[in-house]
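Section 5: illustrative case.
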């Protein structure tokens, strides 16, 4: 054993009875029976062991120790009279004759009970993260994270990928989110940026002659927190392949990820290769989302034509999407709660009606449909007992609202959602361009570095809004794990693609000088992807919040309240960096 212990707290078994041992760990709890009898739980990284204090002298020692102090215990192992089959060490106990304090907890009361820390206020958990991480369930997640990252590395090496680290200090680049900027002390008025992704570096590696690259890449984006996104930094399984197509990328991901999910996940079933492939426009029309949860077997139906002129104002002149659910036994209260949640998530209302056992339309908006009942039944394929959820608005609004409605109805219906598995799919054929909501001008829809399907011919001869890109998203259980693409490696095609959004050759050279110049020296066709490590581990561990699987996450306001970041700095530091503070810092 290591250090001053003979065994860890998860190691002693019935075969160790009679041995003299030394254990170290945290004093978790004591059940005191009398002044000379008490049962103590000692915990370390590996597990717990019960100690039995049987003398007044030892009890006096324990009475002077606060919970969560670290202690060293010497004593003899004996068989427990009342065994605990739920613990690996449940057949034995240790009777100590020497107890020494190694690290004293000076507080009589803790901010929260260690084993119930996940029920505590989130800010308290983050402020005292070192206590939160002592919770065995939290520790388990972090251990799992280490194991999964090691497994991902092993599998990438086995497929002949080379791990290469790329710079953390680089230049600001328009990746779609805000940069974290770092002032350059020796270059007044200039800034480094922390990379939002290693995108340009990995593409330059392909132009440099490296064939298969990967890294567990730290990425930095100044964006707001969500349940599946931590502000500040996150990690990707970043990969790129030279002389590769979309099919090559799919093949690698389908070999690497499912075995990891099945080995470590709370569910032991994951999609087998090849994953389902769904064109973007089909995904929006059929599921109301470009990250559909395929565990739910419900699909959207277009009800626009049959609902026009029914007298319900919200439907007039709008696209109407329907979700038909058979054998849906939810109460009116449950239905109202689902509709309320649809509005919370989308800012648009959800509507509904039922077909009762006699074939009559009842509830919700049913009164507007009585004079066209047969047409509605035929258009939506209805039968007695069906529930119909409806969403209306402009086409994309109606699709997205119905998509949220679909997820909520699926989750509320055991029949229509298979919960105990990991369902992967590829969303493919994204539009290359779109009309920007704010600008009203043509913009890149997804990634400006993607190769347009059809190459230069498509850029020259097709309506830009009809051009598709070799762009793809990886989705698992309704969570987007990654975006990827076949890259635009041809300088002429790149220039033309940017010209369509109003940027000329000079703009491309100014924004992406290194990558553009590298491609001018002969670049291979290449493609890649970067599944989010944090999101993968969140799904594998079955956690609802990404902060449960990150050792030291920021809170929702992008603050590390344990370390006090962001914080103020001394004037001397500002002077060295040629910076002046113009706004008063927050208290």
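Designed sequence:
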């Amino acid at each position: 054993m290591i250090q001053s212990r003979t065994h860890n707290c998860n190691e002693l078994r019935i075969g160790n009875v009679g041995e003299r041992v030394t254990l170290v760990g945290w004093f978790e709890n004591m059940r005191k029976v009398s002044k000379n009898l008490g049962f103590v739980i000692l915990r370390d990284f590996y597990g717990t062991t019960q100690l039995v204090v049987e003398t007044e002298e030892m009890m006096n020692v324990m009475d002077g120790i606060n919970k969560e102090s670290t202690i060293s215990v010497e004593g003899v192992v004996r068989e427990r009279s009342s065994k605990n089959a739920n613990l690996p060490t449940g057949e034995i106990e240790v009777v100590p004759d020497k107890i020494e304090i190694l690290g004293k907890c000076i507080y009589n009361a803790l901010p929260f009970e260690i084993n119930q820390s996940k029920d505590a206020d989130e800010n308290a958990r983050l402020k005292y993260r070192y206590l939160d991480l002592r919770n065995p369930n939290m520790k388990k997640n972090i251990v799992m994270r280490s194991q999964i990252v090691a497994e991902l590395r092993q599998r990438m090496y086995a497929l002949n990928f080379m791990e290469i680290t790329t710079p953390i200090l680089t230049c600001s680049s328009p990746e779609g989110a805000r940069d974290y900027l770092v002032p350059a002390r020796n270059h007044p008025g200039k800034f480094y940026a922390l990379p939002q992704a290693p995108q340009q570096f990995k593409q330059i590696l392909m132009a440099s002659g490296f064939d298969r690259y990967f890294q567990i890449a730290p990425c930095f984006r100044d964006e707001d927190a969500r349940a599946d996104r931590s502000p500040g930094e996150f990690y990707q399984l970043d990969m790129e392949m030279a002389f590769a197509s979309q099919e090559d990328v799919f093949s690698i991901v389908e070999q690497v990820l499912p075995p990891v999910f099945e080995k470590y996940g709370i569910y032991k079933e994951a999609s087998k290769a090849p994953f389902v492939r769904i064109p973007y426009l089909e995904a929006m029309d059929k599921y109301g989302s470009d990250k559909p949860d395929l565990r739910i077997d419900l699909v959207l139906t277009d009800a626009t034509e049959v609902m026009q002129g029914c007298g319900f104002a919200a439907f007039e002149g709008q696209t109407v999407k329907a979700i038909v659910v058979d054998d849906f036994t939810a109460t009116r209260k449950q239905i109202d709660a689902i509709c309320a949640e649809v509005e919370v998530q989308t800012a648009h209302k959800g509507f509904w009606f039922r077909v009762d056992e006699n074939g009559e339309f009842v509830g919700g908006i049913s009164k507007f449909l009585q004079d066209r009942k047969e047409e509605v039944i035929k258009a939506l394929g209805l039968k007695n007992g069906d529930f119909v959820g409806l969403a209306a608005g402009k086409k994309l609004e109606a699709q997205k609202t119905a998509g949220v409605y679909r997820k909520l109805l699926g989750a509320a219906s055991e029949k229509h959602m298979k919960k105990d598995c990991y369902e992967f799919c590829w969303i493919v054929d994204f539009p290359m361009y779109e009309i920007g909501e704010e600008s009203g001008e043509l913009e890149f829809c997804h990634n400006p570095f993607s190769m347009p399907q059809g190459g230069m011919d498509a850029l020259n001869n097709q309506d830009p809004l009809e051009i598709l890109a070799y762009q793809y998203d990886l989705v698992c259980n309704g969570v987007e794990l990654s975006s990827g693409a076949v890259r635009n490696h041809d300088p002429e095609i790149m220039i033309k693609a940017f010209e369509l959004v109003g940027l000329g050759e000079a703009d491309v050279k100014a924004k992406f000088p290194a990558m553009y110049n590298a491609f001018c020296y002969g670049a291979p066709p290449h493609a890649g992807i970067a599944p989010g490590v944090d999101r993968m581990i969140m799904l594998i561990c079955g956690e609802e919040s990404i902060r449960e699987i990150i050792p030291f996450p920021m809170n929702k306001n992008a603050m590390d309240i344990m370390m006090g970041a962001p914080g103020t700095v001394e004037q001397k530091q500002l002077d060295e960096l040629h910076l002046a503070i113009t706004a008063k810092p927050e208290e």
